Amino acid sequence: MGFKCGIVGLPNVGKSTIFNALAKARAEASNYPFCTIDPNKGIVPVPDPRLWALSDLYHPQKTTPTSVEFYDIAGLVKGASEGEGLGNQFLGHIKEVEAILHVVRCFDDPNIIHVSGSVDPLRDIEVIDTELCLKDIETMSGRFDKTEKLARSGDKESREKMPLYEKIKKSLEDGVPLRRIGLSEEEKKAVKDLAFLTIKPVLYCANVAESELATGGGKFVESVREWAKKEGAGAVMISGKVESELVDLSDEEQKEFLKELGLKEPGLNALIRAGYELLELITYFTAGEKEVRAWTIRRGTKAPQAAGVIHSDFERGFIRAEVMSYDDLIRLKSAAAVKEAGLLRVEGKDYVVKDGDVMLFRFNV
Which residues lie below 8 Å from residue 67, measured CB to CB, with a gap of 6+? Predict the structure, then answer.
């Protein structure tokens, strides 16, 4: 599994349309708010040409890509944290995901009602951020009061926690999402159990009209890109309309349609790449006659932990990893040729897995 991504945004920005296209699901997409009553879940294979090149080399019984889980979360509105619209019920669903895909409307269409009456991407972003901040304040409140009381009574651990809690509380009360205040990895770990919504990394998805895809988008898209850059977030441009049309086309028809639009690939590919970059994820492969498979891990993961993604026994009984680079394997056309050329490496517990490694794990339990 790659990562879990929750799709959020105001009503009628194109969330369900994009979700339907990405996940090839059929969540109801209608021209009125709150048509998505439950968080729809779709598992999307990660497009990676390296996997299919390895499959052509090994001719396995099965080829398995890694994947992304998308959750289409009902449209939030101003006041959602206090129960407006569908309220707290749906803010809770965001706690389950690792990243947030924030769909922002960047197109004018008089036939599609905007919940605020006009198209203004930055205003829309701030509405969602405010609601998430308010939900996080609610989460923080009980913990803060309890810890403050213990600190006053002389509890050492509580006194040590208070500076971080005060920093978080002030940020949220000022309407500043926690992802923007430069929390260290140690600080994030200290509050992980609180599952703050605004601490999650965000990938902004500028939903544009079909006519703007080839030109790079207009002023609305540029404003979203600038906003994302300031807070260190990712940003991609996509047309929900185009992606929904691509779903029903064959591979050849897709290529022709994309060519007509002046595009090299579907928006899904760019979106997933941006998500991987945002979360610092990489892919390694296992390959044999039975199966060629892609696996997702975080950059910096060592061999035993990478093995543990396959099965906990692999990590627990890890002995060594036999490693080939994808490039060497494709160039020399077989594992035997890679080994004969002296390019098969035997790595131990401290080996940091690289993107594109083709690995065989030896273990004993």
Answer: 1, 2, 43, 44, 45, 46
Average pLDDT over the chain, rounded to whole? 87
Write out the two tokens for 75. 């449209």
What residues contact 143, with CB distance under 8 A and at least 6 apart? 165, 194
Cβ proximity of 76 and 12 under 8 Å: no
Integer Cα distance of 240 and 152 in angstroms = 54
- The total number of residues written for the chain in this structure: 365
Residues 6+ apart with CB under 8 A from 292: 51, 54, 55, 58, 60, 62, 63, 64, 285, 286
Lowest mean pLDDT among 82-91, 97-106, 219-228: 82-91
CA dist 217 and 107 (Å) reads: 9
Which residues lie below 8 Å from residue 335, measured CB to CB, with a gap of 6+?
Answer: 287, 324, 329, 344
Biggest alpha carbon distance in the chain? 71
Alpha carbon distances (Å) from 286 to 254, 313, 338, 365: 30, 16, 15, 20
> Residues 236-271: pLDDT tens digits?
999 998 988 888 888 899 899 999 888 888 888 888
